[in-house]
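quick one: adenosine-5'-diphosphate bound model?
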Amino acid sequence: MKIAIYPGSFDPITKGHLDILKTGAGIFDKVIIAVARNSEKKGFLPVDERVQLIRESITHLDNVEVDSFEGLTIEYAKKQGAQVLIRGLRAVSDFEYELQLSQANSALAEEIKTVFLTTKPKYNFISSSTIKEIYLNNGDISKFVPQPVYDYLVKRKVC
Ligand code: ADP
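yep, here:
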């Protein structure tokens, strides 16, 4: 059974992330989308709410599970019995960082391979930080995030 981990901040999950996840779910037997609990990086949304929003956004994907983890991604991947890490690439600017990260992970556990996926062009530019910026400046984010995230953020603004 080929298990892949898709790790990240997902703060919040976007249609770009979902597109990567859908492709991964079509390639691997099981994909675990795992939210990193990073005590040094103050997030926009609490990790438990990010996990809940992912759960509500992936009901159409049977072989995808959601989780969160602390510490090294590669250690988490080993614990889950995964053979693959999925990362997404948007532009050349992502490439340098992602290549470095994958090489560091490979040096820590050679048996776990990083696979890079891309999205459909219409989702390519989407990032959680762009969405936060648009949302905080009262722009329309409905095209960029799954419905549960949109509903959650609209409600949050009203409260
Ligand atoms: P991180 O903080 O680990 O970069 P993110 O939630 O920002 O976490 O992203 C997780 C992964 O998804 C990263 O590999 C990122 O490059 C990728 N990703 C995010 N948005 C897109 C997108 N629109 N197209 C392709 N890859 C994406």
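The mean pLDDT is 95.
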